[in-house]
Structure formats: structure tokens, C-alpha cells
Design a protein that fits this description.
Strand content: 5-15%
CATH topology: Protein-Tyrosine Phosphatase, Chain A
Strand order of the largest sheet: 2-4-7-5-6
Order of helices and strands: EEEEHEHEHHEHHHHH
Structural class: alpha/beta
Distance between the termini: 28 Å
CATH architecture: Alpha-Beta Complex
Oligomer: single chain
Radius of gyration: 17 Å
Number of domains: 1
Number of helices: 9
CATH superfamily: Protein tyrosine phosphatase superfamily
Largest sheet: 5 strands, mixed
């Protein structure tokens, strides 16, 4: 995944109808030996609202596969990514429908409301449940993306922050990127994604908290 010279590129890419779309590459390796390759792995929020113009952007970026971490209830609410010629959609839901029961949701979200100390608890659950799906993506990269390949993939969940962020943390960490840079990359989601007010209100009612509480926990800690 590394290279010796980094091309200066825009990290944020405007894909119409998609939030939080950015390149995971371009970061330096901490021993100074190179950089993570750009334009190979992208992360974002869900693609259900992508427009025809946005689809053309994906084609220009040579995207061949989209790994979708969303679960069935999320897809039912937000919609599927439209079919795109030449792009394989890979369902990679790590949470089942049962994980979205009121009791399960309340238990999982409790950690978010415990602040920075609660996030590691929630993320440990995501890491455990997501391990088989993260492994699948790593295998795809090894099998389909040689040093000479110009093809790319997308990883995403609903916001492109938590489940997606943990995969990107693993990827960058394995490639030798410094922990502080990985944390800063994670924090970029606070700039790239925001919840519509009606969605914040829906979650607040479901979790019996205030809208401001939900707004805080849906941003990067």
C-alpha cells in the first residue's frame, strides 16, 4: 500500500448526493519510508442518495467495489445504493436486525453518552463484530490491487464514521501510519458529515435523550 512519493491531491472529493467522501490515502508512514497510496481506498457515508453526476465521479475514480457496513434496518430506512455498471456492491453488515431492537440499541448507545471513556467500549464491540468483514476487505485488496493497479474501492456505513473509521484505523495502522495522524483522519468526519434535524429528533425520541445529546455523540469524540 505504500509508495515513496506522495502526490498532492484534494483529500475531500465532491461526490454529489454523498456525504463525508474522502481519500484514505496520502498519509506518511511514520518511519519516513513513504506514503499510503492515494486514490485506492475511499470512505464515505451511505450512497443511497447518489446522483447521476455522483455516479460519473465514481467512474472517474475507477471504483470497482463498494463495501457496505450498513445493516438491514438502516438500508430499509435509507435505501440501497443504485446499481452502477462495473461496480460490485458487497453487503458487509456486522450488526443483525436483532441488534437494532430497542433494548439492543439502548445498550449500544449508552457507551456513546459516557463520553470519551464510553467510545472505546462501543468501538470494541464494533471491532469484534466487524473482524470477519474487515478481513474480507483486506483479502480483496491483496487479491485485486497490485502496486500497478489504478482501481479503487469504497468502504462506508451510514455516516462513514464509526464502523468505517475502525476499518480505516486498522488499515492505516497496519501500513505504519502514526497514531496521531490516524486520530486526526478519524476526526475529519466531524467536517464531512452532519445529521439532518429530523434524524436527530428521531434518534432522540428513540433513545429518550435530548437532540443536543444526540448531536454531540454523532460527532467525532
Amino acid at each position: 500500500m505504500g509508495q515513496h512519493v506522495s502526490v498532492v491531491i484534494p483529500r475531500w472529493i465532491d461526490v454529489e448526493g454523498v456525504m463525508n467522501f474522502r481519500d484514505v490515502g496520502g498519509w506518511p508512514i511514520k518511519d519516513g519510508s513513504g506514503y499510503i497510496r492515494e486514490r485506492i481506498i475511499f470512505r464515505c457515508g451511505h450512497l443511497a442518495g447518489i446522483t447521476p453526476k455522483g455516479i460519473e465521479t465514481l467512474k472517474r475514480l475507477n471504483v470497482i467495489a463498494v463495501f457496505d457496513f450498513r445493516s438491514e434496518p438502516e438500508i430499509e430506512r435509507q435505501g440501497h445504493m443504485p446499481d452502477i455498471h462495473g461496480v460490485t456492491h458487497v453487503p458487509s453488515a456486522m450488526f443483525t436486525k436483532a441488534d437494532y431492537s430497542p433494548a439492543a440499541m439502548a445498550s449500544r448507545w449508552k457507551g456513546y453518552f459516557e463520553g470519551p471513556y464510553g467510545f472505546p467500549k462501543v468501538y470494541s464491540v464494533i471491532l469484534e463484530k466487524g473482524a470477519p468483514y474487515y478481513r474480507k476487505i483486506f483479502l480483496h485488496l491483496l487479491q485485486n490491487h497490485s502496486i500497478h493497479s489504478n482501481k479503487s474501492i469504497i468502504v462506508h456505513c451510514t455516516a462513514g464514521k464509526d464502523r468505517t473509521g475502525i476499518f480505516c484505523m486498522l488499515l492505516l495502522g497496519l501500513c505504519g501510519v502514526d497514531d496521531e495522524i490516524i486520530a486526526n483522519e478519524y476526526g475529519l468526519s466531524s467536517l464531512g458529515y452532519w445529521e439532518p434535524e429530523e434524524e436527530l429528533q428521531r434518534k432522540a425520541v428513540h433513545l429518550n435523550v435530548t437532540v443536543d445529546d444526540v448531536r454531540i455523540v454523532t460527532s467525532a469524540p
